[in-house]
Amino acid sequence: MALIKKPVTGMKDILPSEMQLRDYCIGIIKKTYAEFGFTSIETPCVESLANLNSKQGGENEKLIFKVMKRGEKLNLAEAKEENDLTDSGLRYDLTVPLVRFYANHANELPAPFKALQMGNVWRADRPQKGRYRQFMQCDIDILGEPSNLAEIELILATTTTLGNLGFKDFKIRINDRRILKAMAAYSGFPEEKYDDVFITLDKMDKIGLDGVKEELIKDGYDAGSVDKYIELFELIGDKSGIDALKAVADKINDNLDAEVSEGLTEIIDSVEKTKSAQFEMVFDPTLVRGMSYYTGTIFEVSMPQYGGSCGGGGRYDKMVGKFLGQDTPACGFSIGFERIIMIMMDEGFKIPGASTKVAYLIEKGIKGDRLADIISEAQKERAEGKQVLVVRMNKNKKFQKQSLTEQGYEEFRDFYDKPLA
């Protein structure tokens, strides 16, 4: 049987041109985050199924690539259900592994702990353009900081990084899960139905305000509650940022602790006053973020010119407690690494400050002292910071140079066994 050349469905090979861009972006990301005090960590790609299925990952828990038990633990003859065969799985995000990592090493880590983690994750999702079953995630998290300083630092670090990668005129949409609940309570929705209402609200960008209203009525909610709910979003109108937040907070003040809106105001105001990248902070009461572990502030990078979100995150103060037995404040922000790479490649991004690329084409008969002299010359240029490729000369030298030019080589030096007359 012939071996299969193509990768497994939903995975992809990465060619050199993309790999160079990925390496460049990883370098910028790590350097910028380090300037904000974040330190790199690494966790295993395989986690216990008990952790992955802990009701922290939302819909992702249905997409786990499960790993069969090994050795004596795997007893096919007595297996009656799936759990008898599997005990671990590939991680579907970096947050669950981070929390386990923190719980395991809390006594060895500083407080607060500012973590940077980059690595592949796996989801048994339906593949489509820009969506793979294996992809890189890039997360920063602050654990042990209960104040708004965590959100401010996370947003500034992420937006500075995006600015350093050449992105501008994007938006940071921000909301709070407590505001979402207060709006639902003000409107009169039953508390046990809040999550269902939020699922419908999350479709706002696709079906619009009228579509949300129509779907809520169709789902059987009281028409008066639906009208009251829709009016809150109409109240904002053209307002944005703190003005939009104040309009909503004033309306639902009996259902919302003042410290929630004050905290969000502080975050928006602080970021706007100290930002270094070109972007806008936007209060968006339609922002939901699907993960069930969020407990407070939530935010998302919105790039309308590119057709959607390029990252997001929020506060998840209750998640660490499931491991440690006591709650630890935690907040994180994830950059949409794969989407950013796709955008940069589509725009033909050129890596700035890249080393001069020189190709030495050596006639095939060259060897001995002559070959050593040529390689020695290449070594000198490499020591000067140039990228020097030493290869044998093809018969079709014109095509060879054309191919190397496409790979970014700017200078060519031809070497023959004997100097040309």
Structure, described:
By secondary structure, the chain is an alpha/beta fold. The protein contains 14 helices and 14 strands. The protein has helices at about 15-35, 50, 95-105, 150-165, 175-185, 195-200, 205-220, 225-235, 240-250, 260-275, 320-325, 335-345, 370-385, 395-405; strands spanning about 40, 45-50, 65-70, 85-90, 115-120, 135-145, 170-175, 280-285, 295-305, 310-315, 330-335, 355-360, 385-390, 410-415. It starts with 15 loop residues before the first helix and ends in a 6-residue tail after the last strand. The strands form three sheets. It has an eight-stranded mixed beta sheet with strand order 1-5-6-11-10-9-7-8, sandwiched between helices. It has a three-stranded antiparallel beta sheet with strand order 2-4-3. A three-stranded parallel beta sheet has the order 13-12-14, covered by helices on one side.
